[in-house]
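Problem: given the chain below (245 residues), write out its structure.
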Amino acid sequence: MEFHGDYHMHTQYSDGRATVADMVEAARLKGLTEVGIADHGPANICTGVKNSNTFLKIKEETKYLAGHFPQLKIKVGAEADIVGLKGELDITREVIEELDYLLVGLHPYVMPVNAETAWNYVLGNQLVKIKKGLREKVKNINTKTLIDTLYKYDVLAVTHPGLKMDIDFQELAKVCIKTDTALEINTGHTFPKVDDIIQIADSGVNFIVNSDAHFPETVGEFDYGRYVLNKAKVTEERVLNATSG
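Solution.
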């Protein structure tokens, strides 16, 4: 299985190590036809963009770059953080409407919107490491919060589902189908694991393979995604960035 686009990569605007131009050039060198910049939302502690309007600045930059990369379709999205138990995100709706797509991911270190979220969601995912009895409760909170987000926003894909924050894959897959949301196979973190994908492979949920690149060298690195999809027997028709034929 081959892939034509990579839609999850970070730049110096968040915790990436290169400029937007560097990442786009890396995509060109890999032979991709589409590339998407999706920096972290501003609530991601120590790694996020300065504020929501930063994404508009990135979009202006890519408009300029488009003239220098005619063979590439350059898109701008965001990897938004869930910051509230009701699915609130850390990017304004006005900015989201200006983006080409929206990615959403669960991240353990975010600035929550209220104390309830701080206790049950942010702190809860830390306490579960020492209080195993909380695991199922926190897993249910993570899953419900993520599902509420998918009903609240138009999300292209859920990034690295289950990474550092347990979720119910089967329940998430059901809602992804209802909301036309894909699940990301993240090659940078090599996550989710093969067994997680196999358990939902027959559900009919769609997937997208992304690098989560923070360096130009890892843009368009899809080997892990190819391996997982092959093991789970997922066909290219269910992979958003698979190249048909």
